[in-house]
UniProtKB/TrEMBL annotation:
<feature type="region of interest" description="Disordered">
    <location>
        <begin position="91"/>
        <end position="163"/>
    </location>
</feature>
<protein>
    <submittedName>
        <fullName>Uncharacterized protein</fullName>
    </submittedName>
</protein>
<feature type="compositionally biased region" description="Basic residues">
    <location>
        <begin position="125"/>
        <end position="138"/>
    </location>
</feature>
Amino acid sequence: MKGSFFAVAQEIGALVEAKNRAYGSSFAKSGDFLRLLYPAGLRPDQYDDALLQVRIFDKQMRIATDRDAFGESPYRDMAGYGILGATMRATKGANSSDHSAGAAMSETGVQQAREREVSQVLQRRVPRGRPARTKTKRNAGDVSELRSKSSASTRTPGKTKGA
């Protein structure tokens, strides 16, 4: 057992060294980065944004040093953090009592964002050979179907509708 822990530790250490050589150590620079952005310090309500900013800073370091190392895409990662941040902000506006990243990523918040997105896409899409009016009627059904799936997935197990 002792040998396996040592082997795993060596493997992880080698990976960290290789990534630091390729990307530079954003970890060592993150404190200075935060002090630059928040010279008066961080308030608790800024923690979620600061976390996303540090993760994006890490990806920017990768772009500046070796964008394609290890076959990773820092641009995709940054886009993902942008989506997380936008979802977090949208949820904060809708639910002023809970400002955490956890609330932003709750199933309800994510589901509401998906429903809005699907509804907007379906409203813009008109299939070939069919008038827009037919598509609009189908859109309402698609969105209703999404809503019923959403409410079905959030029901308490063992309870049925109307019980």
